[in-house]
């Protein structure tokens, strides 16, 4: 078990390293010059060279990359002499745009994205699994068909469409909610939830549709297992049969996709955040991308990869908890 | 005064499914009773409705199935009972065990939890009491260290242990009725003997009524007091076991019994077979469901009046020939119309059936016994690397086949028997790479391309005919594939394929059909035709009949025998069924944990087995004869076959051997000559 965990953590580090390297390389081959971007519009050649040296761009690529990597673990010093800036652990560099530490930018935005992701996840699990399991248990009835038609419809609506419709319907026409702005959970829980309700719904609808279809399938499969018949033959009440014997095995495959989805969303939902004006990581990423803010893009990419890889690891470990046949 | 109601009384039971292709009457006007302490055996082939019947009795039939008629348990009517009330009866008053204990147990919960969970529901018992109950029950079904094992999961149990746990679960709430649906079909024959013994003991102790559903007539003969034979969803015959086996009244019952290869019958008598295959319930024929396959019906229809005068004149056509082959039928006796038999024309003692007129005896045609063998196998060994665990550590390597040696002469059949995991199939697969030792070439190291010219001499037939035929290829393509590889032209190959279809009893006009359009028996004929395409000299048949219905098995066995005689083939016939192996083999090798423990001439091996394992195997096979079953001494082996990954030291059989002594624990016995054959045992014979 310990050995397995170590191996997995090692693999995790490997994946992150590879992603960092690829992202680094992409920016290196891009035609835009980060030094020019950092230097500003009125930039003399001398000053440009200075900036270049300051950012370490005059060094070979591998040296830059090594510098970047060590910075994450030990912190590093940017520039020399009186301009030297100590970038503390965990150092992901500074934004070219506003010279703020990338790490601080990320941590600043993370609560917003996390609120959005977790809230939406709760909502889509309730909606999606509820619909999926209901449909599975009433397989081939009108309820089943109605739910599945609804799921296909919801899945085929792009999130920007549902978002806009929600804003238009709930805020503009009905005036039920204010236009969303982010409130901190700890400071104003009600405001937090009220403001996030619409983004949650918009995001959750899409995922709920996919989860309904997935969970219907796996639940039907689970309920057809011979051990379900055994449980019934023992005279277990149908509710126990479904909840204890069916649900646990039926939901196991859902865990895998849920880990991936949640991991992916934690690093930002670009479209939803943009439409609802939420200052999350997704918007940070988009802004950094259009302005070639390499350190920020690199930071967000690494964070996203980190979340996905960790979510995967957590899912695999949870499998061992759920299924006694899985042993590491 | 009224007689007390029987434990289970089923009257006029009908089950109908609605499918997209029409409604299926899976069970039709079925009635039977089971008394406390008695066993009813329900026998039938696939699609006969036997499992559907048991599920309908339990109220576990598929949603959408329509059940009519009456099911009374100790006087209580169960059909039409609301689900909630029915659940109170299930598990409490009647319980059920299933064929595959692994998939019938929930993989996520401990065995103890599963045994006791309904005890808590039915008796409103607490956790601790239920756990005690689970441990007690596990002890009662003979699981060692029950307290520890109760905390384990099903995958940590062996096959036999799992079925014991299922039985413990079924009996946890002291039910009066136990329905066992093919409880031993997935188990090895020595384990099957243990489980049947266990059920019989528990039945006696508790006065259980038992319904034993099986396709195996031997199992029925061993355990049942009464027998119900089902065909096409209906009762074909119902009678006390002794009467039914001694004198079957329905042509189908008799056909089944006659077409069964048996341990206790001479095998130079040809094996009669029932033509055709079990009916589709989708489009049931009017009248007797068995009529299309029934020789009596055919004789009656085809021969007109003459058919009815069976006692006087010879029967019609092919049937008559077969009838003359069949001995035994007391010609003077009138057709007995036993009330149990649902047949308008019950058997006149001997039912005519198609059978080869004489059994080919290729051994006699063999030239001198000193001819160089067709196949010489020496020290064949297969070691699989241990499984790599997720941590990257490899477990110990598995010696699946460990030093197997034998010779096979042209035109002969070697039977390879053993329980699951003994390495018999692995041996067969390795042989496909080997041949041409007549010229003395060792081909175990030839490259793939150097092997190709030799491949035409050795071919293989597989167990599951449907899954071993590509569903997207026509029969023409399937059969001619090996020829195209050998460089035949497409037209020639197609002509040859048609010939082969004819040879194997298929209709050549069906050459452009796809495998799913054929029944199981026909699909196996395609498999055989494919194996014969290159005119091989040796065919490896790996469980060729074990996936087939009993009535179809005999057809395939006969076909293989005929082909051997006509084409001078040699077979390596791999099977777990000792009766079938006895039927087809000249010599038999018994394998245990990758080694041959006994090999020799079929007749002497079966009549006078020397190795204790062979003796136990033979004694574990149930005979389709209740009287013989009661007479015979039975050796029931303890435990399950050990895992080949961790074979016991010394003689690998010693932990289960009734004769084991000190030397067996330490020293591995080699194959030695004993009583005209080779035996690997320190103490062969008695």
UniProtKB/TrEMBL annotation, chain A:
SUPFAM superfamilies, alphabetized: MetI-like
Record membrane topology: Multi-pass membrane protein
Transmembrane feature ranges: 9-30, 116-137, 149-171, 191-210, 254-276, 296-322
Entry GO terms, CC: plasma membrane
Keyword Ligase in annotation: no
Family annotation (CDD domains): TM_PBP2 (cd06261)
Subcellular location: Cell membrane
UniProt main location, coarse: membrane
Alphabetical UniProt keywords: Cell membrane, Membrane, Transmembrane, Transmembrane helix, Transport
Domain ABC transmembrane type-1: 110-319
GO biological process: transmembrane transport
Transmembrane keyword on record: yes
Family, per entry: Belongs to the binding-protein-dependent transport system permease family.
Name the UniProt record assigns to this protein: ABC transporter permease
TrEMBL record, chain B:
GO biological process, one term: transmembrane transport
Annotated Basic residues bias: 335-345
Annotated stretches, region: Disordered: 329-368
Keyword Metal-binding: no
Listed GO MF terms: ATP binding; ATP hydrolysis activity
Keywords linked to the UniProt accession: ATP-binding, Nucleotide-binding, Transport
Claim: Acetylation is one of the keywords in the record: no
SMART domains membership: AAA
Domain ABC transporter: 10-257, 375-618
Record-linked NCBIfam families: oligo_HPY (TIGR01727), PRK10419.1 (NF007739), PRK11308.1 (NF008453)
Family: Belongs to the ABC transporter superfamily.
Name this protein carries in UniProt: ABC transporter domain-containing protein
Source organism phylogeny: Bacteria, Bacillati, Actinomycetota, Actinomycetes, Kitasatosporales
């Amino acid at each position: 078990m310990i050995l397995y965990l170590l191996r997995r953590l090692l693999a995790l580090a490997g994946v992150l390293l590879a992603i960092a390297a690829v992202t680094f390389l992409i920016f290196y081959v891009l035609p835009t010059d980060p030094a020019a971007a950092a230097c500003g519009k009125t930039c003399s050649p001398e000053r440009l060279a200075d900036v270049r040296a300051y950012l370490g761009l005059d060094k070979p690529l591998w040296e830059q990359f090594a510098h970047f990597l060590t910075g994450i673990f030990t912190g590093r010093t940017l520039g020399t002499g009186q301009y030297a800036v100590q970038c503390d652990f965990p150092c992901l560099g500074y934004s070219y745009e506003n010279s703020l530490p990338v790490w601080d930018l990320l941590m600043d935005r993370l609560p917003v994205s996390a609120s959005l992701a977790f809230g939406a996840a709760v909502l889509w699990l309730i909606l999606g699994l509820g619909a999926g399991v209901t449909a599975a248990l009433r397989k081939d009835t009108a309820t089943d068909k109605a739910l599945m038609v609804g799921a296909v419809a919801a899945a085929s609506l792009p999130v920007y469409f549902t978002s806009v419709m929600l804003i238009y319907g709930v805020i503009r026409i009905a005036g039920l909610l204010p236009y969303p702005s982010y409130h901190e959970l700890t400071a104003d829980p009600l405001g937090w939830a009220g403001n996030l309700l619409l983004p949650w719904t918009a995001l959750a609808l899409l995922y709920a549709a996919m989860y309904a279809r997935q969970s219907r399938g796996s639940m039907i499969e689970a309920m057809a297992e011979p051990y379900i018949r055994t449980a019934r033959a023992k005279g277990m009440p149908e509710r126990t049969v479904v909840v204890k014997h069916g649900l646990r095995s039926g939901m196991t495959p859902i865990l895998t996709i849920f880990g991936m989805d949640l991991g992916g969303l934690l690093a930002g939902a670009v479209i939803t955040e943009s439409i609802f004006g939420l200052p999350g990581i997704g918007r940070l990423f988009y802004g950094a991308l259009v302005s070639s803010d390499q350190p920020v893009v690199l930071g967000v990419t690494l964070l996203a990869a980190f979340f996905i890889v960790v979510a995967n690891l957590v899912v695999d470990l949870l499998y061992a908890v759920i299924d006694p046949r899985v042993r590491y | 005064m009224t007689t007390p109601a029987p434990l289970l009384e089923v009257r006029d039971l009908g089950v109908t499914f609605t499918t997209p292709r029409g409604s299926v009457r899976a069970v039709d006007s079925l009635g039977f009773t089971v008394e406390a302490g008695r066993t009813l055996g329900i026998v039938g082939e696939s699609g006969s409705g036997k499992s559907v019947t048991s599920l309908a009795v339990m109220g576990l039939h598929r949603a959408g199935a329509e059940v009519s008629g009456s099911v009374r348990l100790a006087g209580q009517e169960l059909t039409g009972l609301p689900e909630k009330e029915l659940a109170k009866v299930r598990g409490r008053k009647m319980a059920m065990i299933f064929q595959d204990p692994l998939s019938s147990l929930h993989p996520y919960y401990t065995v103890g939890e599963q045994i006791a969970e309904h005890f808590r529901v039915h008796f409103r018992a607490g956790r601790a009491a239920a756990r005690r109950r689970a441990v007690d029950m596990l002890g009662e079904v003979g699981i060692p260290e029950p307290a520890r094992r109760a905390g384990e999961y099903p995958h940590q149990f062996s096959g036999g242990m799992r079925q014991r746990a299922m039985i413990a679960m079924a009996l946890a709430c002291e039910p009066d009725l136990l329905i066992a649906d093919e409880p031993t079909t997935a188990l090895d024959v020595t384990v099957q003997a243990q489980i049947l013994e266990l059920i019989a003991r528990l039945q006696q102790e508790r006065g259980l009524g038992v319904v034993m559903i099986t396709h195996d007539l031997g199992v029925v003969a061993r355990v049942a007091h009464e027998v119900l034979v089902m065909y096409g969803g209906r009762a074909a015959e119902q009678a006390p076991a002794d009467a039914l086996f001694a004198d079957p009244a329905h042509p189908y019952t008799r056909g089944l019994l006659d077409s069964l290869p048996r341990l206790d019958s001479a095998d130079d008598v040809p094996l009669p077979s029932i033509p055709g295959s079990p009916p589709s319930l989708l489009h049931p024929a009017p009248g007797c469901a068995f009529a299309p396959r029934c020789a009596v019906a055919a004789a009656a229809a085809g021969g007109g009046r003459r058919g009815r005068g069976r006692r006087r004149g010879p029967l019609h056509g092919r049937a008559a020939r077969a009838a003359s082959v069949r001995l035994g039928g007391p010609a003077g006796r009138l057709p007995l119309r036993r009330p149990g038999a649902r047949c308008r024309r019950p058997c006149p003692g001997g039912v005519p059936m198609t059978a080869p007129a004489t059994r080919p005896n290729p051994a006699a045609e063999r030239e001198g016994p000193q001819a160089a063998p067709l196949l010489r196998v020496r020290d064949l060994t297969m070691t699989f690397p241990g499984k790599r665990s997720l941590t990257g550590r490899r477990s110990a390597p598995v010696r699946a086949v460990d030093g197997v040696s034998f010779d096979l002469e042209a035109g002969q059949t070697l039977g390879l028997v053993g329980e699951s995991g003994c390495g018999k199939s692995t041996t067969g697969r390795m042989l496909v790479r080997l041949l041409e030792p007549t010229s003395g070439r060792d081909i175990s190291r030839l490259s793939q391309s150097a092997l190709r010219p030799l491949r035409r001499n050795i071919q293989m037939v597989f167990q599951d005919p449907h899954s071993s035929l590509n569903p997207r290829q026509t029969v023409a393509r399937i059969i001619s594939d090996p020829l195209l590889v050998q460089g035949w032209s497409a037209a020639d190959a197609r002509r040859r394929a048609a010939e082969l279809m004819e040879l194997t009893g298929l209709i050549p006009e069906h050459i452009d059909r796809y495998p799913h359009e054929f029944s199981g028996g026909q699909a196996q004929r395609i498999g055989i035709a494919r194996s014969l395409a290159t005119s091989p000299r040796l065919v490896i048949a790996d469980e060729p009949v074990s996936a087939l219905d009993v009535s179809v098995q005999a057809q395939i066995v006969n076909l293989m025998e005929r082909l051997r005689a006509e084409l001078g083939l040699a077979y390596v016939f791999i099977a777990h069924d000792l009766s079938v192996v006895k039927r087809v083999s000249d010599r038999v090798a018994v394998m245990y944990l990758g080694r041959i423990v006994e090999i020799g001439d079929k007749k002497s091996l079966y009549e006078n087995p020397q190795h204790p394992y062979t003796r136990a195997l033979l004694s574990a096979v149930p005979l389709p004869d209740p009287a013989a079953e009661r007479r015979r001494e039975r050796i029931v082996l303890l435990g399950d076959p050990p895992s080949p990954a961790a074979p016991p030291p010394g003689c690998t059989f010693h932990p289960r051997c009734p004769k084991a002594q000190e030397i067996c624990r330490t020293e591995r016995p080699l194959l030695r000559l004993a009583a005209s054959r080779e035996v690997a045992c320190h103490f062969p014979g008695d």
